């Protein structure tokens, strides 16, 4: 059997690991969405440049 302080430490460790995991997961998803959004803006920018250069020449 574990002591009370070991049990409390064990539960705190599990809780802390879950909190870290969810924070990491949240930031990971956030940065993926941000990266895809910036990629989309870059593609739109190059598309408009392509159209402008085609109409100019």
UniProtKB/TrEMBL annotation:
The residue ranges of the ABC transmembrane type-1 domain are 1-57
Q: Does the keyword Lipid biosynthesis apply?
A: no
User: Looking at the keywords, is rRNA-binding present?
Assistant: no
GO annotation, cellular component aspect: membrane
Question: GO molecular function, one example?
Answer: ABC-type transporter activity
Fetch the InterPro entries from UniProt.
ABC1_TM_dom
User: Any transmembrane segments, and where?
Assistant: 7-29, 35-55
Keywords, alphabetical: Membrane, Transmembrane, Transmembrane helix
Q: Tell me what this protein is called.
A: Expressed protein
């Amino acid at each position: 059997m574990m002591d009370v302080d070991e049990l409390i430490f064990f539960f705190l460790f599990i809780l802390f690991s879950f909190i870290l995991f969810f924070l990491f997961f949240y930031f990971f998803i956030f940065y993926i969405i941000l990266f895809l959004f910036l990629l989309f803006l870059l593609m739109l920018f190059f598309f408009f440049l392509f159209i402008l250069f085609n109409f100019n020449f």
